[in-house]
Structures are given as structure tokens and as C-alpha cells.
Specification:
Oligomer: heterodimer
Distance between the termini of chain B: 48 Å
Low-confidence stretches of chain B: none
CATH superfamily of the largest domain in chain A: Cytochrome-c3 Hydrogenase, chain B
Structural class of chain A: alpha+beta
CATH class of chain B: Alpha Beta
Low-confidence stretches of chain A: none
Number of helices of chain A: 18
Largest sheet of chain A: 5 strands, mixed
Order of helices and strands of chain B: HHEHEHEHEHH
Radius of gyration of chain B: 18 Å
Number of strands of chain B: 4
Shape of chain B: globular
Helix content of chain A: 25-40%
CATH architecture of chain B: 3-Layer(aba) Sandwich
Shape of chain A: globular
Mean pLDDT of chain B: 78
Number of domains of chain A: 2
Structural class of chain B: alpha/beta
Number of domains of chain B: 1
């Protein structure tokens, strides 16, 4: 089924077919769909209209209005976007229809919303808590949550092997069903949370048959710091500091996204100089991150030399960043309406020197690692992610582009000065580990191209616009996204006119990547899990937030 | 016969926080050390302090800086830290690099318990020291010293690699000022230690439903 095509915009088409939907104009605008009609609207959007990419799913507590979710959905072929909202006024038994079968990326996102707010997703096959322990009391993102309900646990967490699902009976009550995650005769091994190859504190439980992976269950939350809840009690400038610590290899980009979102809400246009500086910094950060990616991947696979090469070249980027920002890893550089400090007088010269140094050095990586027969054997053809799956999971960044999905936010929704520079969007079609590796190596070159086009033309102007220290945003909701080092990093901001956000959600770049790991590791060898995890390039604090 | 123990390290003046090592030395010297045992001790401590093996443990940002000191520019191999072990059983100290959350706390405790004595804890970065920027969070342990005994604190968010090296050298000096033989420095008597150990083992055995497939 398709909506009537006479109406141009998707919003009008939905409203014509579903008169109960309400449009609100505040901010980006969003369409509130009653919970009874939501599943039908979602199905039509996915099946009929081709809205195949669920960008972000945000659970929120709207007080007396009820609990609900905000869905940011995009049509990847036409680039159309729509924001849907649906909510259930019954706070004690809030239930929404699950959309995990329409967009695979909704699977973990709905578990997150259940974990945060206790919203039951009817039809979700595995509604366990995602971040917090099973014995956690209360739902932390509800406005009436009291932190004293939970203390530091002393006992180890019990591994619960039952997936939960809720069904509704005719009289409106819920039936809770338990399904075993693993059968009794399955051979299940545990990897993590303390394991060097999981790149942080991520935990997998893997069912094996011999060496072959049958099923994989991801446990997140070992570094869940509750950043979104903390932001709700902070002023806008204070929230900036936490973004750097989400994906610390994309600190610049994350902060850029939040600053952009707040500036959009304020209606503030920043000067060209700021745009140029931010764009150059983002690209330097990307080079830094991709070099670390190559180092860690090679180290995980036993090629320790590349680790040293990567860090040798990475330190030089950090030197440039440090000279201007004062920070090596976490720069805290972007501010609302500008940047902390003007670029250092040596910045332009050093950046140019670095690029002329780095170009020939990239050959070393290719000679030592890319062409290596062991690396090729382990990377080529393993962990294939199809294009459809990449879109459905929302696996953006290098992972999506390796599968042939042109998902670069810099091209889809240009920000900064990306519309003024000429650069290629690197895509591969294989979708295997090797393609994911090559995308990132080639993106280092592209990043250098972008910087070269900008570095000599940084316009004069102010580096910080005049902004009051206490910022109040108007009522509404906004979403801004940047291309982070490993995918689309989005910020969803809901304001009620206060000096702190009502709900601030960060679209994690890593959560879609770990949600697809079960699909792509099935049938692979257990040793391939290391290569697959390495090439997916997730950062765990970004997943857990 | 008594033999006075000194701080043997790089230049004494190069370090700022000498008080606690002085205190340790004072206790040591008051209690006295046998010449033979003392000499043997200083040889052992010299070897031990220059081959401290860290556990490969990192939860967030500080872990990247921990990797950076392992790489060529900062190169902690110069001080004997380069053998990073992935297994706690082979590690001498744990560098708590990053935020510890409620869900991670029992895991960290377990890792610490799995390490063999003598073992040390280095709290790296604001989060591990006090919760840092996440102090107000509902899920963050505000300071790893709530669950583990910490030997060295390295402030920073994240600490610069130089700061980490400084902190690790402080740990080396602490190790050098300890006594491996004799157990005077343990704070509790041998008997008390034995009692605690047995109680610990009994408690682990008492759990019939102890699940080996759980956390590593």
C-alpha cells in the first residue's frame, strides 16, 4: 500500500490517510500518531513508501502525557525524512507496538527504551534490559526515578538465559512469555567483558558448534554512565563536556553535533571561519580515529608492527590538535556558537606538513598489512553484511559504505563546509571485513583531500559568536547529525523552554554495529569474530553512553 | 643489627609526593630489617619494581592513552611495564583506566581477586578516582577506592601519557620501599591474613550454584 501521491510531502500523505495524526510545528516538527494507529503507519512507511532507515529511536517520559517514543525515519533512495511520535498515557503499563520486524535496528533500540523507561514493546521477541542489570530497580530515565533505589552491587550478575516477550490478551492485560536464548545442549562460551579483543568492556555469549558460531548474544552496559539522564539536569553549555567522552575517538565530531543542534534551536548562524575550523578539526579527528582503527585491527590479528606505525602517525595528529585545543584525546574544543580558541599560528603550516608526511606513509600500511597474505585470508570474504541488512540495522559509517550503502551524512545532509569541498564518498560492494578495512584506509586519503582544499582558505572572522552564558531554548525538538568517525552521530534535543534540555538523546554510532554482529557472525569461525569486531570498529562507551 | 632502607630511584627531588613513601620507610626502619634478609629484599624489590606487568584492562577514554604509552613515543617498556597481560593471574597491577559502573564493579572486584599477591591498583583518571564528570550519574561508582585498595592515583581526564608514566614510576618507588620477605609491611599479621583467606575460600565453596560459564 502506498499513500496517495497527490500530496507532495510525506507528512501530508500520512495525515491524509490517518486523520488522527497530529502535526506539531515546534522545532523540526513531528507527527504524533495515536498508539492504535502507529503500527499501521509504520508498516505503510516501510513497505509502501520505502522508508527503510530508522535513524534514531528515542524513548521519552512526557509526564502526564505518558511514556512514548520518537522515531526518526529516512527514505534512503529519496532522502525524505519524517519524525513520528507515539505515546501511551498509561504510565504503569505503557505498551507500544514493536517495529523490530520492519527495521532490524529497532531491536536493540527498543530494548534500550524498555530499559530506560519500562515501555513494553508488544511483539518484541527479546525484551530484556539492555544496559542495566536484570535486578535493577526502577527505570532511570523516568522523571520520578530516585537514584537511592540502587547501590553498588556486590554479587556478580546472574546470567539469565531467558528472553522475555509480552503479548496482549483481549481484555488488555499482558502475558509475559519466556523463551530460552540457548538450548540446554548448546555449547556456549563467554567472551568479555574483560577481553582485549572486544575493544572495551563488551560481552558476548557465543553458541558454538565446533569452531562455527551458531548464535551470538551481546551484553552491553558495562560502561553505561547514564549521560542522557545527567544532561537533563545540566545547562546547555555543561552538557557539551559529556559528548567528548561518548566516542572519544570522535570527540570533535560528537561535540560538533551537539553544538550544531543547540545552534539550530537558537537560530544562530556561526561565521564561516568557525565552519571551516570545525570541518578541518572533524577531518583531523577522522584521520586519528581511522589510524587507531588500523592499529587495533592489526594488533588483534597479530600484526603488532602496524600498531606502532599507527600510533607513530597518530601522535602527530594529536600534536596538531593539542597545540590549538590543549587536549590530546579529549579536546573540549567546540562551544555553542564557536570554538574555545582561535587556531594556533602554526596550525596551518603543521597541518600541511602532516599531510605531505602522511601521504607516502600510507603506502607502508598497504605494504605491511593490506597486501599481507595472512591478513587477506582472514579478512576477505568473512563477516559479510548485505546492503539491505546494513540499511535495516542502520549500520552507518565505514561499515555501511563497505556494503555499498552511500550513507555519508556529509553528503546526505551537508553541514559545516562539506557542500563547498569536492570529495569522493568511498563505497565498496563486498561488505566483508576487507572492504570495511579498505573504506577506512581510503577515507584517510579523502580526509586529507578535504583538509587540503580548506586549509589555505580559512576566512577571517570571529571564532566565537556572542552567546549569553545562560542559554534558554524555545519549546520544540531538533535533530542534528554529523558523520562521526564510525557513522552517523545524531543528537535529538527536546526542549520545554528551560535552561536545560527536557530530553537529550545521542544516536550512538556503535549500537547498530553491535546489533548486526549476530547476523554477520553466524556461520563464521570463532576466530573470525575478532576480525569482524575489529573491522566493525565500535567504541563501547559510545554504545553504552 | 639494623639496616636502613632508602628510597632508591631517579632523583628524589623530581617527585612531588614523597610523604607517603617516607611514612612507609619510617615504619620499615622502625621495625628494623635483618642485614641478609634486607639485602636479599632490596635485590628482589629491584627486580620486582622493574618488571611490573599490567593487566590489559580499560573501560573508556583512559584506555586509549594507556595504549599510547605502550606505543613507541612514550614507550613504557623503558620502565619494564611492556608485558601487558590479558589474564589477571599473570598480572602484577591493574590500571583502572576509565569509568567503573555499577554493572562493572563486581567484575572488576573479581578481576582483582583473581590476581596473585603481591598486587597493586592504579586509579587512572578522574572517573576512577572520584567519578569525575559522571559523579552525579545513577550508574557510576564514584571512585574505585570504594571497592579496591588503591596504591597510586593519577589525575587527569584523561591523564597525559607523561602523567601516567609519572604515576607508574611512583608505583615502582613504592614497590622498592616494601618488604617482600618478612611480611612486616602487610599491615595485618600473617595469622590474620590466613584467617581472611580461608574465610574467603569457604565463602566461594559455599556457593553451590556457582556458575563457571559466567564472567571470565
Amino acid at each position: 500500500m502506498r499513500y496517495n501521491m497527490e500530496n507532495n510531502s510525506i507528512k501530508d500523505r500520512i495525515m491524509a490517510a490517518e486523520p488522527s495524526a497530529q502535526w506539531s510545528d515546534a522545532g523540526d516538527g513531528m507527527l504524533t500518531v495515536p498508539v492504535q494507529a502507529f503500527r499501521k503507519v509504520a508498516e505503510t512507511l516501510k513497505e509502501g513508501e520505502g522508508f527503510d532507515f530508522l535513524r534514531s529511536l528515542t524513548g521519552a517520559d512526557w509526564g502526564d502525557e505518558g511514556l512514548g517514543c520518537v522515531y526518526h525515519i529516512e527514505n534512503t533512495s529519496t532522502g525524505e525524512n519524517i519524525v513520528l511520535r507515539t505515546l501511551d498515557p498509561d504510565r504503569d503499563n505503557a505498551a507500544l507496538p514493536s517495529v523490530h520486524d520492519l527495521w532490524k535496528g529497532a531491536d536493540l533500540n527498543e530494548r534500550e527504551a524498555y530499559d530506560y523507561l519500562g515501555i513494553k514493546f508488544i511483539g518484541h521477541p527479546d525484551l530484556r534490559r539492555l544496559y542495566l542489570r536484570d535486578d535493577w530497580k526502577g527505570y532511570p530515565l523516568r522523571k520520578d526515578y530516585d537514584p537511592s533505589w540502587n547501590g553498588i552491587p556486590e554479587d556478580n550478575e546472574e546470567t539469565n538465559d531467558a528472553a522475555l516477550s509480552y503479548e496482549v490478551t483481549k481484555d488488555g492485560s499482558f502475558i509475559l512469555k519466556r523463551h530460552p536464548l540457548f538450548e540446554d545442549d548448546e555449547y556456549v562460551i563467554n567472551i568479555g567483558p574483560q577481553h582485549p579483543a572486544t575493544h572495551g568492556v563488551l560481552r558476548f555469549r557465543v553458541s558454538l558448534e565446533g569452531e562455527i558460531i551458531r548464535k551470538l548474544d551481546v551484553h552491553c552496559g558495562y560502561i553505561h554512565r547514564g549521560i542522557e539522564k545527567m544532561c537533563e539536569s545540566m545547562t546547555y553549555p555543561q552538557t557539551l563536556g559529556l559528548t567528548d567522552r561518548l566516542d572519544y575517538l570522535g570527540a570533535m565530531q560528537n561535540r560538533h553535533a551537539l553544538c550544531m543542534c543547540i545552534e539550530k534551536a537558537m537560530g544562530l548562524e556561526v561565521s564561516d571561519r568557525i565552519q571551516y575550523i570545525r570541518t578541518i578539526m572533524d577531518e583531523l579527528q577522522r584521520i586519528d580515529s581511522h589510524l587507531l582503527f588500523a592499529s587495533c585491527l592489526a594488533q588483534d590479528m597479530g600484526a603488532l608492527e602496524v600498531f606502532f606505525l599507527g600510533f607513530r602517525d597518530r601522535e602527530k595528529v594529536l600534536d596538531i590538535l593539542e597545540q590549538t585545543t590543549g587536549g590530546r584525546l579529549i579536546q573540549t574544543y567546540n562551544t555553542i556558537g564557536g570554538v574555545q580558541a582561535d587556531i594556533h599560528p602554526d596550525f596551518v603550516r603543521k597541518t600541511k606538513e602532516y599531510i605531505s608526511y602522511m601521504r607516502p606513509k600510507l603506502k607502508e600500511y598497504h605494504e605491511i598489512f593490506t597486501g599481507n597474505v595472512i591478513a587477506r585470508t582472514r579478512l576477505v570474504g568473512t563477516g559479510v553484511l548485505s546492503r539491505e541488512d546494513a540499511i535495516s540495522f542502520g549500520a552507518t559509517g565505514g561499515t555501511g559504505r563497505a556494503s555499498g550503502w552511500a550513507c555519508d551524512v556529509r553528503k546526505r545532509h551537508p553541514y559545516g563546509v562539506y557542500d563547498k569541498v569536492d570529495f569522493k564518498e568511498i563505497t565498496f560492494t563486498e561488505g566483508d571485513c576487507f572492504a570495511r578495512y579498505m573504506v577506512r584506509m581510503k577515507e584517510i586519503e579523502e580526509s586529507m583531500n578535504i583538509i587540503e582544499q580548506l586549509i589555505d582558505n580559512i576566512p577571517e572572522g570571529e571564532y566565537q559568536m556572542k552567546v549569553r552564558p545562560l542559554i534558554k531554548l524555545p519549546e520544540g525538538n531538533w535533530y542534528s547529525a554529523v558523520e562521526g568517525s564510525r557513522g552517523e552521530f545524531g543528537v535529538y534535543l527536546e526542549s520545554r523552554g528551560d535552561k536545560s534540555p527536557y530530553r537529550l538523546k545521542f544516536r550512538s554510532t556503535g549500537l547498530p554495529l553491535v546489533s548486526c554482529i549476530d547476523t554477520i557472525t553466524r556461520g563464521a569461525k570463532i576466530a573470525d569474530l575478532i576480525a569482524i569486531g575489529g573491522t566493525l570498529d565500535y567504541v563501547v562507551p559510545d554504545i553504552d553512553r | 643489627m639494623k639496616r636502613n632502607v632508602n628510597i632508591k630511584s631517579m632523583k628524589y627531588e623530581d617527585f612531588n609526593d614523597n610523604e607517603y613513601i617516607e611514612q612507609m620507610l619510617k615504619e620499615l626502619n622502625e621495625n628494623g630489617a635483618n642485614v641478609i634478609v634486607g639485602c636479599l629484599d632490596s635485590v628482589i624489590e629491584w627486580g620486582r619494581s622493574n618488571s611490573l606487568w599490567p593487566l590489559t584492562f580499560a573501560t573508556s577514554c583512559c584506555g586509549i592513552e594507556f595504549m599510547a604509552i605502550g606505543a613507541a613515543r612514550y614507550d613504557f617498556a623503558r620502565f619494564g611495564f611492556e608485558v601487558a597481560r590479558a589474564s589477571p593471574r599473570q598480572a602484577d597491577f591493574i590500571m583502572v583506566a576509565g569509568t567503573i559502573t555499577y554493572k562493572m564493579a563486581p567484575v572488576l572486584k573479581r578481576l582483582y581477586d583473581q590476581m596473585a599477591d603481591p598486587k597493586y591498583v592504579v586509579a587512572t583518571g578522574g572517573c576512577a578516582i572520584s567519578g569525575g564528570p559522571f559523579k552525579k550519574s545513577y550508574h557510576v561508582v564514584c571512585g574505585v577506592d570504594k571497592i579496591l585498595p588503591v596504591d597510586v592515583y593519577i589525575p587527569g581526564c584523561p591523564p597525559r601519557p607523561e602523567a601516567m608514566l609519572y604515576g607508574l614510576m611512583q608505583l615502582q618507588r613504592k614497590v622498592k620501599a616494601q618488604k617482600f620477605l618478612g611480611g612486616i609491611n602487610r599491615g595485618i599479621s600473617e595469622k590474620e591474613y590466613e584467617k581472611l583467606m580461608t574465610a574467603d575460600i569457604n565463602r566461594a565453596n559455599a556457593k553451590d550454584d556457582y556458575d563457571e560459564s559466567g564472567l571470565a
